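Handover notes (outgoing to incoming on-call)

Open items:
1. Acetohydroxy-acid isomeroreductase: sequence verified, structure written out, both below. Nothing else pending on this one.
2. Nothing else urgent.
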Amino acid sequence: MTSTAYTSRVFPLETMDVPGGTETILRGGRHLFPLLPQAFAGVRRIGVLGWGPQGRAQALNLRDSLTGTDITVTVGLRPGSASAADARANGFTEEDGTLGEWLAVAADSDLLILLIADAALAAHHQEIFAALKPGAVIGLSHGFLLGHLRETGGEFPPGHGVIAVCPKGMGDSVRRLYRQGEEINGAGINSSYAVHADPDGRAVDLALGWSVALGSPYTFRTTLAGEYLSDIVGERAILLGAVHGIVESLYTRARLAGDAPVTAYEKACENITGPIARTISHTGLRAVREELNPDGQDVFDRAYTATYGPAREIVAEIYDEVADGTELRSVILAEQRLGSRPMSAIGGSPMWSVSDEVHARRGARDLPVDPFTAGVFVATMTAQVDEFAERGHAWSEIVNESVIEAVDSLLPYMHARNVAHMVDNCSRTARLGARRWGPRFQSAYEQIAYPAAELPADQTLLTAFTTHPVHDALSAATKLRPSVDIAVS
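Acetohydroxy-acid isomeroreductase structure tokens:
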């Protein structure tokens, strides 16, 4: 397992009990904002390169949290960027020095946070590195660049700290929950942090300060390599790719069984993004099964034990391809092939035509958990949990990347829009992965899992689920959960 013990000269830390040991964590909150100048000691200008969902959210959160200090947050964009108008509308301007050309901002920043698209970062990181002022710290919110450097034989520049703070949710969630936290202290998106290089010994507190300033209610330690592996695998599995495969296959299954389109959609997409996600978020994975009646539990058990094996095989395959660089190369090749051309949308299958009609029915009735859908979804989520545990990830990383990010950030957005909309509007790296692996999950469910679900449940697999250590780990993490659900209009 990744070592999670660390100390801070600035922030009060806590120890959280997890299966097999403890983890050191930082509980966030706005009461810690007065400590931010200490955490950012030596930093007078924070540069944020990029104005995508993460760049926008992090620049705004950092600026708001540091109001009243002598630390300036500046946004750096490429010349002619279409994002400049929105950055100006949000108060970053050339006139006051808080908006500028990206390499100029890089040259003037004490902490430079790189939040441009992965392919752009792969193509331009050497220019950015060359522009850095001496001793500037490089900040990342994703380990993709580390993977690219390892693939190409490159390195981070010597003499510069390299840290990461990685919110466990999409950029809009990072901003939206931060704003909710103005009224309810502690509302926000959990983050992991990593220290990759620390030449002057200040990296831990700098990373923790960055996480606190983003509004993270709970910060845990990882490594840049561990974050990259868990994040990229998660996108392709339970966070996006597998969800798309699940709902497409379940919709088809329900239609073949004679359900009307609206009913089939409710059993598939609406169930996962609604009652199943809410149950897991508030009361845990095991509660999804426990709250069913005996007949429903039998259906859940058969679906769960039939799905777990095929799902685990695909998650393991994804992990291997991320770890050996195959997935990274596929993303770079796709970006080179596609260039600036738009990617085709995935929301063209019949189920998405009834999305609006289903959404309009909300409030008219209380949609119950569908036990078959629940079994398939929980089995896939548990398969990812087990793969991460076997590969040595710490429990905080496992439950945040496999469960919390799904039910507290992504699934609420899928509920407000739909799954296809989410896949078609996420980052290109995530979108490419979901498009590649979603059909793999779909075919495995249709060809292997669903026929096997007609057979009695495998009691060994079922016992492994009901006694799984993830339940204790998730319970410990849930105690740090904000007291509000994300408000998605």
